[in-house]
Amino acid sequence: MHRPGRISRRRFLQGAGAAAAFPLFSLPAGAGDRPPNFVFILTDDQRYDTLSCAGHPFLHTPRLDRLARDGAFFENAFVTTALCSPSRASFLTGKYPHRHGVRDNNTPFPAEARTFPRILREHGYRTAFIGKWHMGTQEDPQPGFDHWVSFPGQGVYRNPVLNINGETKRVPGYITDILTDLGVQWLRERPAGPFCLYLSHKAVHSDFIPAHRHSGLFTDTIIEPPASIHDTLEGKPEWLRQVKRAGPGAEYREMAELVRNYCRCLAAVDESVGRVMRTLQDGGVLDNTLVVFAGDNGFFFGEHGLSDKRAMYEEAIRIPLLMHFPALIRPGMRVREMALNIDLCPTLLDLAGLAIPGDVQGRSLRPLLAGRKIPWRDEFLYEYDWEPDARRRPAIRGVRTERWKYIEYPGSANISELYDLRSDPLELHNIAYFQPGTRIEAEMKERLGRLTQGIPAPRSGPAGA
């Protein structure tokens, strides 16, 4: 099979200069003619606060903490849709769901889509996808990857059946360990040249089944309900009263055990990250490799009485985002600017010195990683389309700024919401209900109207759901 030519050092520098109007970083000593490598590690349903470096009260994540200590910790990272498949497609393409077309968990990823692995491969990178693809029922190898390991849908935690380069095989063991084994193996045996590994974990999607070695963790840990579980829902949209609600006290005991198992699953993810980093170090490529760790969306554990994700409250839309790249990132960097999942694709292409497709909606994070103070986004659009699989959750369009959040439910009778995140971080007091007609409400409605101009109306359910 014909392989495109490898990127030369000269071409890398020329492309990087054309792609960005800020100084090139210096590759580490000994990097020679090598453009940067990329390792993207994605978890499923991981909340932004489930890292010890993010202040979690009992979860210990030393390997992930190392990424933050030696690299960059994004304090305000978000997804544009808090749902697995749309978010995953946004990471790959740098586009919103209304543009890439994957607007629910049942839509397959379009074969013609331009993704960062596909573009990197066209320019000489060796690429591998290992893990959870989760778009429609796709499990067979997808365009843009030299090496492929996946499974249909959500997969299972134990003894999974994997599709390895088009052939199915049952592999005994625990899924996080298996995917890590295969990722490490590929890193060690890959052909020479620049590479991109996308390691996509099943964890920590429900059912939260931990590895046997972690099943005893946190047994005696007391799990307190979140403060917003006491939300009375006064002044909130009707749909919140129609979904199954989690309550405090004795009602929370079952959810508390789910939290324990969720954190037990993350213990294996943390170990996985350590193994990948050690493999890069042993192979002499760690200093020339951008390692990105992120979650595809957050998760509710009783906030506002909710479980799952989808809604536009902070626990669902915020994600962990860590980056390690000694060639560019100073250790211990804290990035306060708002980063989105659609920023990954342009960031990787920019660092590789490649042109970013004109229809990409994200921005390269490279200047922020270089420590530059530049004009940055002060708002972003959130979108969610109604799904038959979640009938009681209405379509959503919203806008978030650093301080304010405004939410509408198009095609339904649910009232709008407006929150001052500075004075009301738990999102309990809906200003649009208690103090309608304020100047800030008008301003946020105008922002949302501008951001949604020309975008197709969201799919809404029967009877306005």
Give me the CATH architecture of the largest domain, please: 3-Layer(aba) Sandwich
The biggest sheet, with number of strands, parallel, antiparallel or mixed sense and barrel status, is:
10 strands, mixed
As a percent range, the share of helical residues equals 25-40%
Rg computed from alpha carbons, rounded to a whole number of angstroms = 22 Å
* CATH C-level class of the largest domain: Alpha Beta
Number of domains: 2
Mean pLDDT across every amino acid position: 92
> How many DSSP-defined strands?
18
Structural class: alpha/beta
CATH topology of the largest domain: Alkaline Phosphatase, subunit A
For the largest beta sheet, what order do the strands appear in spatially?
7-6-5-4-8-1-9-12-2-13
Tell me the overall shape.
Answer: globular
The proportion of residues in beta strands is 15-25%
CATH superfamily of the largest domain: Alkaline Phosphatase, subunit A
Annotation field: number of helices: 13
End-to-end separation in angstroms reads: 50 Å
Ranges where pLDDT stays below 50 over 5 or more residues in a row are 1-32
Fold and architecture overview:
There is one protein chain. With 465 residues, this protein is of the alpha/beta class. The chain has two domains: 9-19 and 33-375, Alkaline Phosphatase, subunit A (3-Layer(aba) Sandwich), CATH 3.40.720; 382-464, Arylsulfatase, C-terminal domain. The chain has 13 helices and 18 strands. The chain has helices at residues 9-19, 62-70, 84-93, 97-100, 116-122, 175-189, 239-242, 253-282, 314-317, 344-351, 366-369, 431-434, 439-451; strands at residues 37-43, 72-74, 77-78, 126-131, 147-150, 161-164, 167-170, 195-200, 289-295, 300-301, 307-308, 321-324, 333-335, 339-340, 379-384, 396-401, 404-408, 417-420. A ten-stranded mixed β-sheet has the order 7-6-5-4-8-1-9-12-2-13, sandwiched between helices. A four-stranded antiparallel β-sheet has the order 15-16-17-18. A hairpin with a 2-residue loop joins β16 (396-401) and β17. α6 packs parallel to α8 (253-282). The longest helix has 30 residues, at 253-282. It is globular and about 60 Å long. The termini are far apart.
